Amino acid sequence: MVSRRTVLRAAAATGLATATGCTATADVLGLRPTVKVAVSWSGRELRAFRDVLDAVVPDDYVVEVIPLGDDIASAFGPRTPRRPDLVMLPQPGQVRSLDGLEPLPDDLVVDPPAYAEVWRDLIRRDGTAYGLPFKIAHKSAVWYRRSVFAEHGVEPPATWPDWIRLNLRLVERGVTPLALAAGDGWVLTDVFENALLGLSAPAYRRLAAVDPPRLSREPAVAAALRLTGGLWAMPGALAGAVDRSLTLQFPDAVVEVFGYRRAAMVQAPDFAELTIREFAAEPDDVAMFTVPPVSAGFAAPVVIGGDVAVLPAPAGEQAKDLIRRLARPDATERWIAAGGFLAANTLTPADGYSPELARLDEQLSGAATAFDLSDRLGALGGSRGLQRVLHRFLTRTGGRGPEAVDPAVAFAMDELRELED
Amino acid sequence: MVLSSNGLRFEVVGREVTGRPVRGRPRRPYSPYLLGLPGLALISILVVPIVVTTVQAFGDGPGNFAVLADPDALHAIANSLIWVAIAIGLIAVGFALAMVSYRIPAVTSILQPALVVPFALSLLVSGATFRIMYDPVPERGTLSALSERLFGSSPVWLGPGLFWLVLASAFGWIWLGYVVSLFRAGLDAIPSDLIRTVAAEGLRGRRRFAAVEWPILRPITGVVTLTLVVAAVRMFDLILIAVPASMHHDADVLALHWWRTGATAEPGRSAALGVVLFAAVAVVAIVGMRGLRRGWAMPPVSRPVGTPPPGRRARRIGWLVGFVVAAVWALPAVVLLATALHSPRAAGLRGWWSLDGLSLDSFVAASHAGLWRSMSSTLLVALVATTVLLVVAIPTAYLLTWGGLPPRLGRIALTAFAVLAVAPVQMYAAPLRDAFAAAGLAGSRISLALVHAAAGLPFAVLLLRSAFASAPPSLVAEALQGYDRQSAVLTAVRHTYRPALVAVGVLEFVLVWNDFIVGFLIGGPGTTPLSLVLWGEARQFAVSTGPVAAAALVSSVLPVALLLSFWPTVVRGLTQGTRP
Asked: Which long-range contacts (CB under 8 A, 24 or more apart) does A202-208 make?
C-alpha cells in the first residue's frame, strides 16, 4: 500500500510540476505586447487560421488566439486586461446592432470592387464601416461522389424537380441519396433559405429588410417549406433516417458521404472541403454541383455567409495594424492552400483555389446572391426560432412520404406565427 | 443556623432556589466572534448576489413566476424530477452493492479503487466518454458495434428517448463509487458484538436489517441522498456535452433552461427561475439537515474478533465478482485512453479497438487548442481557492462549535450554511458577472478563485463542524476556559482532525479543477479553465473524438492521482471525523 501511494503522489507532483513549468514559459511571452484575437472556429479551421497569422504577424507583437466557439458574444464587454482586441465575428448581421465597436482605420478600403456589393450595407452603420469582411461562405453547394453518379448513370440536376427525380432513382437502386446534418440547426436553415431564394428573391429580400421579421405572413415561406419537405419526405432518402440524422453534426454528414460512403451527396457550404480532405476514403472521388434553380427560367440561388473582423472599442495600435495586415489580398493564401476558404477580398488571387472552389468563387460576384437570412432575422433565426421549427418539420416529414408534407407545412407556419407574437 | 468566629456572628438562612441562580443572561465573550469575520466576508460574495437575485425575482409582486407556466419550463421541471428519480435509484443500487460486498470482504481491494477513480473525473469527461461509447455509427461506437454484431442492427443511442440511457450511465459511473464507499464505511463501523448479540437474539435477514443496519446507516444515507439529489437537480454540464444539440430541448432541465432563457428574457423572469431552482434544493437540504441532526459521529471501528474468515469458495466468488465489476467499471476509462491514442483522422473514422492510426497526434491537436495554458490557469485558481477556503473555514467552524454561540444563533447559522451549501450557481451568477464587469475584474483568475472558495465554504464549514463536534469532552472543556487556551486547542485540532481537513482540501481542489459551470457563467473570455477548452473542442464532437479524448485524459490525471492517494482519509473525514 505504501509504494502505491508513493507512486500516486509522485504522479500528482509531476502533474503539478508540468503545469507550473508551463506557467513559467507563458510568462516569458509577456515581454512583447499581445494582441488577443477571439474566433469561433475550432479544429482544422482554427489550425488554418493560426497558419495565416504565422505568415502575417510581424515580430513587434505576439498574437494569442482565443477560441470561443458558440460563445463568441462574450468577447464583447467592458474593457479588461483579458478582453480580446480583435473579434472574428461569424454572424456579420450583428455588426449593425452591436455597440462598442471601433470604426475601421481610414486607410482600409471596403467598397466595391475590392469587396462584393452584398457587404456594403452589412458592415456599415451611419455610413461608417465597422467590420472587415474576411471570409465568405458559399452555402449553395452540394458535394457528391462522382463514382456513384457514374455507376447509376445519373447527372447533376438542372432543376429542383430533376433533383427529386435523381434522388428517387438512387433510392430505387438501393443507394441512399442524401446525408443531412440535422444535429446542427444552421444546416436545416441553409436548405430552407436556398429553396426560398430560388423561389422568390424579392420575398427573400423583403424578409431580410423588415423589422420585426414576419415569416408567417409571407406565402413564399410556405412554398419553400413545401419544396424542402419534398426533398426530405422521400422514404429512404436520408442516411440513417430521421433519428440518426438528428445526431449527425455537419462534419459527420460529410464523413457519412466521403468517409463511410453510405450516402451519395450532402448539401454543405464550401468549407466542407477541409473535412473532405481530411476524411475522404478516396480523395479523387469528390465532385460538386450548385443548388439547382427551382425550375427552368428561375435563377439558381446563391446564399452567402461569412466572417467579418471587428475591433471592440477602444482598439490599440497593434490591433489596428493586425487588421490592416489581414485585409491584404495575399494574407489568406495559406488557408486557401489548406482548402475550404473563399476570401471576401476579390483582389485575392484565385489560382490557389481547387477547381470546385474556383467555380463557387465565380458565382460570388453574380447578381442572384443574397446574404444568409437566419443571420439577419436575429433571435427568430436562432436555435429557439426558425431552427427549432425546421427540426420539428423534419421529424414530421422525414421519410414519411409526400402526403406528410402539407400538414407539416401548416404546423410549421402556425409555430412561426406563435414565435413572432 | 448561627455560626460564631473571630467575634463575628453569622446567620445562615436557607432559601429555596427558584429561577436563575444569577440574574440576567450569561455574559458571552466577544473575542470568538472575531473568528467569524473572514467567513462572513467570504460568504458575502455569495449572499449579496443571492439577495439581489431574489429581490429581482419578486420585483413587482409574484408576476415574474408566470415564467413557470411556459410549456418549456414545465418540461424542464419534469426532466429535473426524472433526474431526482435517477439519483434515488442510484442510491438504492449503491446500497445493494455495499451490502453485497460487505458480506464478501475480499472484494474491497480491487473494487474500491475502480469505483473511486470516476469520482475524480468531471462530469464533462464522463459525458464525453459515454458519448464516444454510445456513438450510433457502428464503425465508431462501442455499443453500436456490439449490438450490430449480436442483433444485426443497433438503435440510435444518442437519438430521441435513448439519450437518457447515456446520461444516466455517465452520472452513475461518476457517483456510484462515492455511494458505495460511504455505505461501506458505515457498514464496516458496525461493532461486531452488536451483530453477534442480535444474531443470538434470533433476528435474521430483513428484521435484522431493520433493527441494526438501517438505524446506524441513516445519517450516512442522509448525507448520500443530500449530495446526490442536489447534484441531480443542479445538472448542467453533463447534458451540454453528452446530448447532441438538436436534442438539447428534449433533455432540458431547470438549470439549463435558466441559461437558455437568460440571454433573451427579462432579468426578473430569469431570476424567478433561479429562485425556483434554489427553493427546490433548499427544501432538500433542510429536510436532510433535520435527519442529520443527531450527528454523524460513528462508534469507533472495532476489530472483528472471533468472526470466522469466509470460506475458500466464498472468497473465490468474491474475487471473481470484484474483478468482473472492476473490469466493467474501468471499461469507459480504457475507451477514453484508447481513443486518445489514435490520430484525429483514425479516431473520427474508426473505433478505439482498431489497430491502425495509433499515434500521439491527438495530444498535439489538443495542445493547439490552448490546453497547457488553461491547465496552468486552472491550477492557479484551484490552489488559491483551496488555500483561501481552508484558511477561512477552520476559524468559522471553530466558532460554530466551541465559540459559545447562543443556541438559537448557532442553529440559524447551521441552517443558513446548509442552504447556502446547495445554492445553485444560477442564483448568484448574473449579479456577480455584472459586478465583476463593472469593477474591471472580468476574466480575473483571482476573483474566480474567490468565488469558488465562497461557494465551497458552507459545505466545508459543515463538515469541519461535525468533525470538531465529535471531539472528546476534555478538549471542549479546555476551549471554553478562555482565550489563551484556544491557541493550544487549535494545535490539537490540527493534529487530531487531519482526516476532515484533508477531506475538505482534497475535495475542494478536485471540485474546482473539474468545475465547468462557475467558469462558464462567471469567468470572462480568456479565463479558459480546462473545462471550457474541453467543451470548445467538443463542438464538432464525432470527428474530434481524438483531441477531445486527449484533452479529457490530460485534464484528469491530476485529480485522479490526488483522490486515489488520499481516498481512505477522505472517506474517514466524511464519515467519522476523529480517529478511534
From this structure: A204/A370, A204/A373, A205/A370, A207/A373, A207/A376, A207/A377, A208/A370, A208/A371, A208/A373, A208/A376, A208/A377
Q: Tell me, what DSSP letter sits at residue A69? A: G
The Cβ of residue A164 has, within 10 Å, a number of other Cβ atoms equal to: 18
Is the bond into A113 cis (omega within 30 degrees of 0)?
yes
Closest CA to B500 of B466, B534, B475, B540: B466
Looking at this predicted complex, what is its ipTM?
Answer: 0.83
Determine whether B182 is exposed, middle or buried from the number of CB atoms within 10 Å of its CB (0-12, 13-18, 19+): buried
Average pLDDT over residues B238-244: 90
CB contact under 8 A, B372 and A22: yes
For B90, list phi and psi in degrees, rounded to 5.
-65, -40
Amino acid B474: pLDDT: 65
B562 in A contact zone (CB under 8 Å):
yes
**DSSP letter, residue B203:** -
The closest alpha carbon to A111, from A327, A331, A304, belongs to A327
Out of B246, B264, B537, the one facing A246 most closely (by C-beta) is B246
pLDDT per residue as tens digits for the range B156-171: 998 888 999 999 999 9
Largest CA distance in chain B: 114
- The per-residue pLDDT for B303 is 47
- Ramachandran area for residue B526 (φ above 0: left; ψ -120 to 50: alpha; else beta): left
Cis peptide before B332 (omega within 30 of 0): no
- Of A8, A47, A77, nearest to B564 by CB-CB distance is A8
H or E stretch including A272?
A: helix A272-279
User: What would the mean pLDDT of A356-361 be, rounded to a whole number?
Assistant: 91
Closest residue, chain A, to B532 (C-alpha): A68
The answer to whether residues A95 and A123 touch, using CB atoms and an 8 Å cutoff, is yes
Spatial distance between the Cα atoms of B580 and B573, rounded to a whole number of angstroms? 12
Which residue in A has a C-alpha nearest to residue B558's C-alpha? A12
B257: amino acid identity, one letter: H
Asked whether the beta carbons of A133 and A115 are under 8 A apart, the reply is: yes
pLDDT in tens, A237-290: 999 889 899 989 899 999 999 999 999 999 999 999 999 999 999 999 999 999
Interface probe with B: pick from A16, A247, A258, A380, most Cβ of B within 10 Å? A247
**pLDDT tens digits, residue range A137-173?**
999 999 999 999 999 999 999 999 999 999 999 999 9
Q: Please check the confidence at residue B379 and state whether its pLDDT lies above 60.
A: yes
Q: Which three cell numbers stand for residue B552?
A: 479529457
Please tell me the distance from the alpha carbon of residue B151 to that of residue B144, in angstroms, as a whole number: 10
Cell numbers given for A48: 488554418
Cell of B447: 476573483
Taking the C-alpha atoms of residue A412 and residue B218, their distance in angstroms, rounded to an integer, is 53
Confidence of residue A416 (pLDDT cuts 50, 70, 90): very high
Task: Please give the DSSP secondary-structure letter assigned to residue A350.
Answer: G
Q: A52 or B17: whose pLDDT is higher? A: A52
Residue B471's pLDDT band, with cuts at 50, 70 and 90, is low
DSSP readout, B341-372? TB-HHHHHHS-TT--TTBSSHHHHHHHHTTHH
User: Cβ of B368 under 8 Å from any chain A Cβ?
Assistant: yes
Query: Can you list the alpha helix ranges (DSSP code H) found in B104-141?
Result: 108-116, 123-133
